[in-house]
Design brief:
The protein is an all-alpha fold. Helix content is about 75%, strand content about 0%.
Length: about 220
């Protein structure tokens, strides 16, 4: 249990590191008002792009430890389903890592748009959109599959989780955060740029809470 607990705290640290880094990369006062998907980068400083880039690069590998924690919490219920959750978690953060690792660079391109021909800038952003921005759609699909497997494993019983933990799967938390951000824009401008990291901070926190309760009653 101590190893499982340590892995959970590493996952929690990952959500904080990557969350702060992504906030630096994506936050600006105009983030909710941008009509173009890259326009908000005009309001993100070069210093924040660089700091955010290296914070996410440092923190991202720690997410894999977090998913090993989740696997260890699930495997007593169903080893096969737990491995599916683990594999999908690894795929999600591999895909997500490729995407987030590109954000500092596309932000730099936006900053340089006035120093290049308009058609060149358009070609660059269109190429980015077709090669890297599409990864967000893939990531959403993987997270949805992961959430289904996570919930089914818990509901079948025998895991270290209470069955109500099935409601705290990534896709439901993401949807609730998006709705909160849209309904309350003042909060949304801080929530929406770092959705995935807030989601996993919540999941790892609840997971560690349940693990600590188990240890207390053991």
């Amino acid at each position: 249990m101590q190893l499982t607990k340590s892995l959970g705290y590493i996952g929690l640290v990952a959500s904080l590191f990557v969350g702060v880094g992504e906030f630096y990369l994506h936050y600006s006062p105009e983030v909710l008002n941008s009509t173009n998907q890259f326009e908000f980068f005009d309001y993100v400083s070069d210093e924040h792009l660089r700091a955010g880039h290296f914070l996410v690069i440092i923190g991202l590998p720690l997410y894999f430890a977090g998913y090993i924690h989740i696997y260890r919490m699930l495997r007593s219920g169903n080893e096969t389903l737990a491995r599916i959750v683990l594999a999908l978690g690894f795929v999600a953060f591999t895909v997500g890592g490729i995407w987030i690792g590109s954000r500092g660079f596309i932000g730099s391109i936006v900053h340089l748009k006035n120093e290049m021909p308009a058609q060149t800038y358009l070609n660059l952003t269109q190429n980015y959109d077709s090669l890297l921005e599409i990864l967000v759609q893939i990531l959403r699909g993987v997270i949805t599959l992961l959430s289904v497997a996570f919930s089914i494993t818990i509901l079948k019983g025998g895991t270290f989780y209470k069955k109500w933990m099935a409601l705290f799967n990534p896709i439901i938390i993401l949807i609730l955060l998006v709705l909160t951000g849209k309904l309350f824009p003042e909060a949304g401008k801080y929530i929406l740029p770092v959705l995935m990291n807030i989601t996993h901070f919540i999941i790892f926190s609840i997971s560690l809470f349940q693990l600590n309760k188990l240890k207390h009653h053991a």
